[in-house]
Amino acid sequence: MRWFKKKKVKNTDEMSFLEHLEELRWALIRGLLGWIILTVAAFAMKNYIFGYIIFGPKRQDFLTYQILQKIGIAYKAPDFPLISTTLTGQFTSHLLVSVYAGFILGFPFIFWQLWQFVKPGLYPHERKATRGVVGYATFLFVIGLLFGYFVITPISLSFLVQYSVDDVHTVKNMFHLGDYISVVSLLTFAFGLIFEMPLIIYFLAKVGIMTPPFMRHYRRHAILVIFILSALITPTTDMITQLIVAIPMLFLYEISIMVAGRVQKRKEKEEKALALSTSTA
To answer: Taking phi first (over 0 means left), then psi (-120 to 50 degrees means alpha), and beta for anything else, what does residue 58 get?
Structure first.
């Protein structure tokens, strides 16, 4: 098909604004088509996706609970009923989960399509410096998803299920299927994006928006923001739980400072080389 054929452009400076828009349009179409195909595939895998992934934190054989039991921590999976109160509730939830799953599975391809549009506009040394960016982005995204799903989601569910407005449990908890899916999806997907921080800082450092001195100067402010975010993400009031969330984010921030430092050193080296070549000329 015509939209699968990438148009070869020798020099992006020769392309008009409309030609750039045309390239972006086809990149988005190819990415969207891949997303749709994987969404359909996920829709067909209903029993596996719901039985083992979406409802996984409700199962006693969930990986997180097995690990806790092996290290001597007795942990019982949260047991609670899920209800659907609308005629189309289960179908809508099935469709929504399939869209989420399609995007997660298609993330490498979607990101690669967007990168194929951006890459021709870079200088040769910038292309060399960003080699493997799709792999790095995918790796960070997957690590974030796993952390959100296997660590944060079980903690949050256990707290929310056991929480009561009084000591005698006057109000009985019966959770809506859509609410449950929203919590699991939000916590999982949010950390997939949060773990992209080093990559985002890399590009911000490339354009001079983020620098190591700036990030070190505002480190205290960043730590405060991170702990506020960890408190918002985890509904528990347990300090240990908030630390479990905050520590990886603090670690990512420190890695981001290192990434920005490497970018700055490379830019200074290139500027010195350019100044030297100009003076000798």
So the answer is: alpha
Structure tokens at 159: 């707290």
| Cα gap 63→150, rounded to integer Å | 8
**Whole-prediction pTM value?**
0.81
Cα within 13 Å of Cα(224), Cβ side: 4
Beta bridge partners of 83: 176
**Residue 229 CA: distances (Å) to CA of 164, 195, 247:** 24, 14, 12
Which helix (H) or strand (E) segment is 195 a member of?
none
Q: Which of the 8 DSSP states describes residue 71?
A: T
Give the model confidence (pLDDT) of 78-126 as tens digits: 888 899 999 999 999 999 999 999 999 999 999 999 888 888 777 777 7
Residues 6+ apart with CB under 8 A from 234: 152, 155, 156, 159, 241, 242, 245
User: 8: closest CA among 127, 120, 128?
Assistant: 120
Q: Which residue has the tokens 């080093």?
A: 198
**Within a 10 A sphere around the Cβ of 181, how many other Cβ atoms?**
20
Residue 235 CB contacts under 8 Å (≥ 6 apart), including other chains: 156, 159, 160, 163
